[in-house]
Hints:
Nuclear Transport Factor 2, Chain: A
Amino acid sequence: MSEQVNASDEVKQHALKAYFAGLSALDPEMISAAFTEDGELEDPVGTAVRKGRTEIAKYFSKGLCSVSRRLEINPIAFHPAGDAIAVQWHMMVESLSGTKAEADGIDVMTVTSDGLISRIEGYWNQRAFLKAFAG
């Protein structure tokens, strides 16, 4: 069995920052570029898993990025372990109509040694967020 090389904590934080930068820019291509070609996004956990950069970009381009004017997401705490990093975050989003909504959550990201995200599992209350976002 070959030995797996885990990403360093610095590499994991860099991948996380790239993902959050794409979200803050509301740029689906920038978001998906933070993933491996076959990366997976289950956000929130229990919803459909989006597989691959194309599907991830499509998810954001038809969703959050298409209805938002501004998004700010701030990490509160990082917890690296093995090839993953868990991050607690706070997000504020303003819709195109000016409605504002906030959410808190935790993302668990698996990161490759070359600094790309292979999987994200998001833990947050999407229903409450969508209700607030709708006004």
